[in-house]
Amino acid sequence: MKYKNTTAYQHGDKLKIGVLLVNLGTPDAPTKKALKIYLKEFLSDPRVVEPTFPRWVWWLILNGIILNIRPKRSAAAYASIWNEAGAGSPLLAISKQQHQAISAELNNNNIEIVTELAMRYGNPSIKSGLEKLKVQNVDRLLVLPLYPQYSASTTASIFDAVSSELQSWRLIPETRFINHYHDHAGYIDALAHSVKNHWQVHGQPDQLLMSFHGVPKRYLINGDPYHCECHKTGRLLAEKLGLNKDQYRVTFQSIFGREEWLKPYTMDTLKALPAEGNKHVQIICPGFASDCLETLEEIAVENKGYFIEAGGQEFSYIPALNDQPDHIKFLTKLVTEHTKTWLNQTPIDHCETKNLFKNMN
Ligand SMILES: C=CC1=C(C)c2cc3[nH]c(cc4nc(cc5[nH]c(cc1n2)c(C)c5CCC(=O)O)C(CCC(=O)O)=C4C)c(C)c3C=C
Ligand SMILES: [Fe+2]
Ligand SMILES: [Fe+2]
C-alpha cells in the first residue's frame, strides 16, 4: 500500500494538537565512523550545499575528498565536548531538556498539546517524531524549528523533510510551520536577561560580539533573509541592553569551504579587536537555541585562543538560552500563539460515521 494508515485512530477518537520540535542533529558518537554517516546526510542536503556546479560534481567532491578527511577532524572536536557519563552530544542532551521542559510547562498550564522532539539529521529522526505524534492521534500539527532566524539551509530543510514524510500519510494533519522568531519580544528579552546575568558576574566588556553561524554570501544575494534577520536580532538585543553601535558587533562564524561567506568573520574580528584597544570581550551566539559544537568548542575554546593570542585579556562566552526558564516560557508562548485558534476550538470529534462503523464491524 502506498499510504500509511493512521493505525491508532478509531472513528470517534478524540484528536489532538501536536508539536514537533526540530533541531539540527548531531552524530550518534564522537567517532570517525559516526561522523561519516552524519556528515554524509547533512552535506548531501541540497538546501545546505547549493553548489554552483552540477550535483554529480558535488557528489564526487563530498564522497571522494570531504568524507575522507573531515570525519576524523570533526570527531576529535566532538570528543572534546562529549559527555561520556551518558548524556552524549550537548546539542541532543540540551534539546531533550528543552523538550521535557516545554512539555511540563504546557502541562502545568493545562494546555492539551502533545510534543515530540526530532533532529533534521541523525536521531531521533523527523520520521520517528512524526510517527510518535501520529499514534497519539494528532490531527493538527505545529512544526517548531529551533532556529530563531530563517535560513533556507536550516528552516526550509526541516520543511522539506517534514513534507516529504507526510507525503506517505493517508490522513495528513492540518499543519502550521514557524518560519522564525528572530524579533519576538520574548526571545529578545530572554537574551537580554541572560547577558545582564552574565554582566553581574563578569562585568560589562569593551565589546559584546554577537556571533551567528554563517552561510555562503551567495545565499544572501539569492534572497535568503538570514543575514537581515541576524542583524535585526543584534540591533534589538543591543537596544534592549542600552548599547550604542560602538559597543557591539554582529559577526559570522563556522565557515565551510572556499567561497566567501557572510562577513565579518568572527575569527578575524577577534584577532583584530585587541589592537583596537578592546581587551575585554564577551561573545553570545543568539542563532543557537542550544549549545553545541559550534559554540562550546569553536567559540568558547578555538576563538578564545585567537583573541588571547592577539593580545586580548578577558574573554567569556555567554551560554545559549538552552533550558533557562525564560527561554522555556518563551518557546511555550510561541507554541500557544501559533495554536491559539486550534486551542479555542471545542475538542474535535468530527466523526459522523461512528455508529455506522460500529454496525459495519
Ligand atoms: C556546509 C555548509 C553549512 C551550512 C550552509 C551550514 C549552515 C548552518 N548550520 C547551522 C547550525 C549548526 N551547524 C552545526 C555544525 C555543522 N555545520 C556544518 C556545515 C554547514 N552549516 C558542518 C559540516 C557541521 C558539522 C560539524 C563540523 O564538521 O564542523 C551545528 C552543530 C551540531 C552539533 O552536533 O553540535 C549547528 C547547531 C545553522 C544555524 C546554519 C545556517 C544558518
Ligand atoms: Fe552548520
Ligand atoms: Fe534585507
Automatic annotation (TrEMBL):
Fe(2+) binds at residues 213, 294. Pfam families: Ferrochelatase. The keyword Ribosomal protein does not apply. InterPro entries: Ferrochelatase, Ferrochelatase_AS, Ferrochelatase_C, Ferrochelatase_N. GO terms for cellular component: cytoplasm. Its EC number is 4.98.1.1. GO terms for molecular function: ferrochelatase activity; metal ion binding. Keywords: Cytoplasm, Heme biosynthesis, Iron, Lyase, Metal-binding, Porphyrin biosynthesis. SUPFAM superfamilies: Chelatase. One of its GO terms (biological process) is heme biosynthetic process. Pathway: Porphyrin-containing compound metabolism; protoheme biosynthesis; protoheme from protoporphyrin-IX: step 1/1. It comes from the Bacteria. It is an enzyme of class 4 (lyase). It is found in: Cytoplasm. Its main location: cytoplasm. It catalyses: Fe-coproporphyrin III + 2 H(+) = coproporphyrin III + Fe(2+); heme b + 2 H(+) = protoporphyrin IX + Fe(2+). Catalyzes the ferrous insertion into protoporphyrin IX. NCBIfam families: hemH (TIGR00109). Belongs to the ferrochelatase family. This is Ferrochelatase. It comes from Marinicella litoralis. The lineage of its organism: Bacteria, Pseudomonadati, Pseudomonadota, Gammaproteobacteria, Lysobacterales.
